[in-house]
Specification:
- Helix content is 43%, strand content 8%.
- By secondary structure, the chain is α/β, with parallel strands linked by helices.
- It folds into four domains: 36 residues; 56 residues; 65 residues, no CATH class; 165 residues, Nucleotidyltransferase, domain 5 (2-Layer Sandwich), CATH 3.30.420.10.
- Strand 4, helix 15 and strand 5 form a beta-alpha-beta unit.
- The protein is elongated and about 100 Å long.
Length: 386
């Protein structure tokens, strides 16, 4: 089979790639635009970790190609440096450096000088983490604890409010991970991110669809009281199932005001098993801290009436295909995947082990809580009810 000739993409083609990547197109879809395999596109995008490089531009004060051609012609006729500078309206030192850097009087060529200057100007600025190794070690240690870059950035500002040398933006941390040429953080730390992908993707890349079904006598989320919606008081929870391999699953419950997480071991996903486990879990909390539960349209909650009768906790159901209506739970489930990755069999985890994982997540600072932890916030609520 004849091997295809290597393709070199033009600047306009690369710009189109980045535009489609930002819009959420897959590598396969972008490859079809150029009749190439997805690996060809990946090679281009992965060079900068899926982050579009800033377009290069010349300084408005730099010598232009037209000026360099004037210099070349003047040198050929034997004009002095001062005479050339006066004709171009430039400082003599500027012309002198230009000529010395690009072959001298005898070998100066305008086009070659222009290309060489453009190449020499490509000096990427060293990022803060590569210059401050002590800060890089702190960031790496927190990443290994599964803290997100945003949590690390917020914690550093909270812990070192007057020491800007210990401040770093979450974007700098992400770029240092995705763009390995920066030499600041090791690539192995990517595995500790909430999403373990090796390249940045557009937020439009995938859209998770909620599991939905017909729930008899379901009370819509639109009927949920305003005090639940605005998170004014604690005690209102969001729930869902996180699935693993081998038909295994774990129930997750997140308190809306404090983002406190509870994990519940399940022996099955049928409605009776799930509802009984939720009833048992609900009885461990005072009524003041468990007033309502918001769930999606999953068939595991067909027995919601039994749950409400046993606990006096009202269940509200999201609209079909609207996972954002349980935003706190969706976000926390994403964090949980760092501890319970997709494809892992969850049936081997005991309730004690699940409690330990929940404790780790509850002790991680959250931006939405002013970088307090869910554990701190929930403990304050418990103290107020006792």
């Amino acid at each position: 089979m004849k091997q295809r000739r290597r393709i070199y993409y033009s600047e306009s083609q690369r710009a189109l790639m980045w535009e489609r990547w930002k819009q959420g197109w897959t590598l396969h879809e972008i490859g079809k635009l150029f009749d190439r395999a997805h690996s060809s596109i990946h090679q281009i995008l992965a060079q900068t970790g899926g982050i579009r490089p800033v377009p290069r531009s010349r300084s408005s004060t730099a010598l232009t190609l037209a000026e360099r051609e004037e210099i070349s012609r003047a040198l050929a006729t034997g004009e002095s440096i001062r005479s050339i500078a006066a004709g171009l309206g430039r400082a003599p030192s500027t012309i002198c450096r230009e000529v010395q850097r690009n072959g001298g009087r005898d070998n100066y060529r305008a086009s070659q000088a222009d290309k060489s200057t453009w190449a020499r100007a490509q000096r990427p600025k060293r990022c803060k983490l590569s210059e401050n190794r002590a800060l890089a070690r702190i960031v790496a240690a927190k990443l290994r604890m599964f803290w997100s870059p945003e949590q690390i950035s917020g914690w550093l500002k909270h812990t070192y409010p007057c020491d800007e040398s210990h401040h770093v933006s979450h974007e700098t941390i992400y770029r240092s991970l995705f763009i390995q040429a920066r030499g600041a953080l090791k690539k192995e730390l990517l595995a500790h991110l909430r999403r373990t992908r090796g390249m940045r993707r557009s937020r439009h890349y995938t859209q998770k669809t909620a599991i939905h079904g017909q729930i008899v006598d379901a009370v819509s989320i639109s009927e949920r009281p305003a005090c639940v919606e605005d998170r004014a008081i604690p005690g209102h929870w969001e729930g869902d199932l996180v699935f693993g391999s081998g038909n295994s699953q774990v129930a997750t419950l997140v308190e809306r005001q404090t983002r406190y997480l509870m994990l519940i071991k399940l022996d099955g996903k049928d409605s009776q098993t799930v509802v009984n486990a939720l009833i048992k879990s609900a009885r461990r909390l005072p009524q003041e801290l468990y007033k309502s539960l918001t769930w999606d349209r999953g068939t595991e909650m067909h027995g919601h009436k039994k749950f409400t009768m046993a606990t006096d906790i009202q269940v509200y159901f999201c609209d079909p295909k609207s996972p954002w209506q349980r935003g706190s739970n969706e976000n926390t489930n994403g964090l949980l995947r760092q501890y319970l990755p997709k494809g892992m069999n969850l049936s081997g985890y005991s309730q004690i082990q699940l409690n330990a994982i929940a404790r780790q997540l509850n002790e991680r600072p959250r931006k939405t809580l002013g970088f307090q932890t869910p554990a701190e916030m929930f403990s304050e609520c418990v103290a107020l009810t006792s």
